[in-house]
Amino acid sequence: MTVNSKLIERLAPWIAVVALVIIWEVTVRLFNVPSFIFPSALETAQALITYAGPIGQHSWQTFWTTLMALGWEWRSG
To answer: pLDDT (tens digit, 0 to 9) for every residue of the chain, 77 residues total?
Structure first.
């Protein structure tokens, strides 16, 4: 494997994510999709920043609930 192919292999997932976000944003704007149906990538990022605290709290609670359920299931067989 050459250096260029290794670099491409490492960057490919990031390039794919950026391309999908750009396609998402352009599609929403091009077809004037209302935000309540399909918000744009920018609106979604803004909401994640605005509501980072509650999202983090609920994610933490969900994580622990899932771990407890898996532990209970493992213990019960």
So the answer is: 687 899 999 999 999 999 999 999 999 999 999 999 999 999 999 999 999 999 999 999 999 999 999 999 888 86
Q: Are 42 and 25 in contact (CB under 8 A)?
A: yes
Residue spans per domain, the chain: 3-76
47-75: b (≥16 Cβ within 10 Å) or e: eeeeeeeeeeeeeeeeeeeeeeeeeeeee
- Evaluate whether 42 touches 28 at the Cβ level (below 8 Å): no
Task: With 0.90 as the threshold, say if the pTM is over it.
Answer: no
